[in-house]
Amino acid sequence: MSSSSTSMSKTVAVAQLCSTSNKIDNLFQMAKCAGWAMASQSKMLFLPEACGFLGQSAKETFANAEPPFLEDKNEAAKPVENPMWLTEQLQKTVSLCSQGKANEDPDLNDVIKKEQCENISVLQGLQTIARASQMYVSIGGLHVLVDDSNDDKRVYNTHLVLDENGEIKAIYRKIHLFDVSIPGQVQLRESDSTAAGHEIILCDTPIGRMGLTTCYDVRFSEIYVKLVEQGAEILLVPSAFTVPTGKAHWHVLLRARAIESQCYVIAAAQFGSHNAKRSSYGHSLVVDPWGQVLADAGGVDSPQDGNLPTPSIITAEIDLDNMASIRQRLPIQQHRQAAEY
Question: CA triplet 196, 123, 73: central angle to 5 degrees?
Answer without folding.
Answer: 65
